[in-house]
Amino acid sequence: MDFNNKVVIITGASSGIGAATAIAFAKQSAKVVLVGRNEEALNLNASKCEEAKGIKPLIIKAELTNDEDVKRVISTTIENCGRIDVLVNNAGVGISGSIRDGIEPLDLAISTNVRPAYLLASLATPYLVQSKGNIINVSSIAAFKPIKDVEFLPYCMSKAAFDQFTRCLALELGKDGVRVNSVNPGATKTNFMAACGYNKDQMEEIFKIREQSVPLLKMVKSEEVADLILYLASDRASSITGSTFVIDNGEMLL
């Protein structure tokens, strides 16, 4: 796979799946646009990307719940790169909560995990039509089944909506040659649980339980998810659109 002269926007690119995805694209000669809130972490990952093929990434510090920041992601990319070939909607947060917690957790889940990706895709669409590019949405197996260990109702709902967004958008943009697919990881060793408020010991315990409970007896690595994203964004997947790809060590079988 070769992404030479291709411009790839990756949100949530400062850590975890987003960081691994940025490095994977950089190794294939892409011009990566790293979007996130933590500028220090973005700079660190940009250095790793540049080491791959000597192509300097574009860094955009942004809060994606702010519409003006979302607009700036697209305008800055076009000003500096002139095109958009791939949009990886990876940014999102884990939001715990139950029906007893009121509407606020759901509002937060939708405004963080769905709305920014919708707006980004809307603004990027004219450029993706020009390049015959594609969108990869990073969702979760929580879109298909509840998370048993903790109360994650708002998060699960937001990811189910995200998958439907993938399918509807693929149908709408297919005639323009733009593909849209979703990658749905299971339990992955990232800072996801920390963002939900769990401490290190609690995270390690959850990781241990997950590793012992899935068929392959391990957790997904960010690099494995990145490899799947890279494939779906490449010409090798030119006939794949509107699909959701589970990568979960068999967790969906349980």
From TrEMBL:
Pfam families, per the entry: adh_short_C2
SMART domains in alphabetical order: PKS_KR (SM00822)
Domain Ketoreductase: start-end pairs: 6-186
The protein, known as: Glucose 1-dehydrogenase 3
Alphabetized InterPro entries for the sequence: KR_dom (IPR057326), NAD(P)-bd_dom_sf (IPR036291), SDR_fam (IPR002347)
PANTHER family found in the cross-reference section: EG:BACR7A4.14 PROTEIN-RELATED, ZGC:101858
Source organism per UniProt: Papilio machaon
